[in-house]
Every structure is written in C-alpha cells, then in structure tokens.
Amino acid sequence: MKISADSAAIVSGGASGLGLATARRLAGAGARVAILDLNEEAGTAGAAQIGGIFICTEFTQPAG
After folding, report:
1. pTM of the model
2. Measured between alpha carbons, how far is 3 from 42 in angstroms, rounded to an integer?
3. Domain-located, residue 2
4. Structural domain includes residue 27
5. Distance between CA 62 and CA 33 in Å, rounded?
6. What is the per-residue pLDDT across 12-41, written as a single tens digit (0 to 9) for each?
C-alpha cells in the first residue's frame, strides 16, 4: 500500500509496543495518524512524538 501526505491512519493500541511502532512508521511515511488507546499518558506522549493526535478510548468492553 502506498502511503502519502493524503493518507490517514487510525492505530488502536498505539500507545506502546507494536502499535506505537506502527504509528511511527506510518507517520514517517507521511500519513496523518491518530493513536487510540486506554493509556492516556503514553498515548499523548506517543502522539506528540509523531505529530499525530491521541484519542483515549476503550475497545475491550461492549457499549451500553
């Protein structure tokens, strides 16, 4: 897949580990990246490192 400045990516679990590495790789290739994670401190720091945004969210519990 070609990644350019017109690309946008959402990386769930992007505050650390493989998710953060993926977010860094995508941002480095020019994509606009949103990191979604439950860890607000690490997610905010990761987003700042890559020039992206952070959204604190929970994916493990059903809505309602």
Report:
1. 0.88
2. 25
3. no
4. yes
5. 25
6. 999 999 999 999 999 999 999 999 999 999
Q: Which of 15, 18, 60, 61 is nearest to 37 (CA)?
A: 15
Model confidence over 2-14: pLDDT tens digits?
888 889 999 999 9
- DSSP code, position 30: T
Contact 37, 57 (CB under 8 A): yes
Check: CB of residue 63 under 8 Å from CB of residue 46.
no
CB 63 within 8 A of CB 37: no
Side chain identity, residue 40: E
DSSP letter for 35, please: E
Containing structural domain, residue 26: 8-56
